[in-house]
Specification:
The chain has about 375 residues and is of the alpha+beta class. The protein contains eleven helices and 17 strands. Helices cover about 30% and strands about 25% of the residues. Helix 2 (about 30-40) packs antiparallel against helix 4 (about 145-155), helix 4 packs parallel to helix 6 and helix 6 runs parallel beside helix 7 (about 215-225). The longest helix has 20 residues, at about 175-190. The relative contact order is 0.19.
């Protein structure tokens, strides 16, 4: 890990890679790389550094759409339609992308975080992968707008406003910056591939600050114009229908199949829009099923055909595609990697490592649960 980061301190733009079809110019913007280095230079030698130890209760994430909205209620009267599936084996390229962000620690003036992306593709019965990062950032109140502005410049087509960038809270910065990098990669892959299946980790719901409707619409249009199909898998959905979890309704269906859901509203609020048709997918034997969003502008037969091509050209474990599973694994930070990054940054910038006491534990002992802010 130390050697990897040392090499990345000599950043250059990513060279050409042997992606399927025309993905050959996947390059990180030079300004993005320079920004990573520039934010690290504002770390003062000899200052205090508190390494971050991630736990389930102390890992803040931005609220998801499903946590803040109710999609189904009794007045929508949705309809459920099981659709049997058959594998289509035709060597269609399958490409998956995932991004992970991790808080590394805190300094006296800001937070240290790292972002890494992974792209996995399968072509002609072989898996290939590309890792981008990890890229460390030191985000402070003074530079957060500069950091966010550049990410949006390369992740979206529209320019950010000052009011918009001021909404970037330091506590949520790693998650939101990771999301913006993921959007940039999704757009780049959609532009540089043809006749492929592109797998996302997430949904096709748009209208948030980090994913405006105009951006999602253009991304889907770009994919369609190059005969690509985007399939978005949600691992843990909180959407409920008549009091039951959405994925529960497919348990009585024989796999492989899709459960088509009709009759739900296209808009969740004045801002949020559903740009994909929602299905429940059970693509193989096993206990798992997933919410699957497919571009709403694709005819039903095309959506079913794309799912069949996924089944016929990728390995499925508990109904989950292997390419997307590998993208998650290759992007995720392990505990050893986090420790390696922490030690590297502390040694490089001669930081004094300190451990602040957990006030909750001091006051409440074993009853001191919850995040330590």
């Amino acid at each position: 890990m130390v050697n990897l980061l040392i090499e990345q301190y000599q950043y250059t733009t990513t060279p050409k890679y042997n992606f399927p079809h025309s993905i050959q110019d996947l390059q990180l913007p030079q300004q993005f790389i320079e920004l990573s280095l520039r934010t690290l230079r504002n770390i003062k030698n000899g200052k205090l550094f508190q390494p971050y130890i991630p736990t389930q209760s102390e890992n803040p994430t931005t609220p998801t759409l499903e946590e803040t909205t109710l999609l189904f209620n009794r007045s929508t009267q949705p309809k459920l339609k099981p659709i049997p599936l058959k594998p289509i084996r035709d060597e269609t390229p399958i490409i998956a992308v995932d991004v992970s962000s991790m808080k590394i620690g805190e300094t006296e003036i800001g937070i240290l975080c790292a972002i890494r992306a992974a792209i996995v593709w399968k072509q002609k019965q072989q898996y290939h992968y590309l890792r981008l990062g990890p890229f460390p950032f030191h985000i402070t109140d003074e530079n957060r707008n500069e950091v966010y502005h550049l990410f949006r410049q390369y992740s979206f087509l529209e320019q950010p406003t000052l009011d918009y960038t001021n909404t970037l809270s330091l506590i949520y910065a790693p998650t939101r910056l990771g999301s913006l990098l993921e959007r940039w990669l999704q757009m780049d892959i959609a532009v540089q591939t043809r006749n492929s299946l592109i797998l996302w980790d997430g949904s096709l719901t748009a209208g948030t600050q980090d994913f405006p409707v105009a951006v999602m619409s253009q991304l889907l249009e770009t994919a369609r114009s190059r005969f690509n199909t985007i399939l978005a898998f949600t691992k843990n959905t909180r959407l409920r229908l008549l009091g039951h979890c959405l994925t529960d309704y497919i348990h009585k269906c024989t796999p492989p199949c899709l459960l088509e859901i009709n009759g739900y509203p296209m808009a969740l609020s004045n801002a949020l829009r559903l740009l994909g048709n929602i299905y429940v997918a059970k693509l193989s034997e096993g206990n798992c099923s997933f919410r699957l969003d497919i571009d709403r502008k694709l005819p039903l037969e095309k959506a079913v055909e794309a799912t069949g091509r996924l089944m016929g050209n990728d390995v499925l474990l508990q109904s989950y595609p292997e390419t997307l599973r590998l993208a998650h694994i290759y992007s995720t930070f392990t505990a050893n990697e986090v420790i390696g990054i922490q030690r590297f940054l502390a040694r490089t910038h001669r930081l004094k490592i300190v451990t602040k006491p957990n006030v909750r534990k001091l006051l409440f002992g074993p009853f001191g649960k919850g995040p330590e802010n």
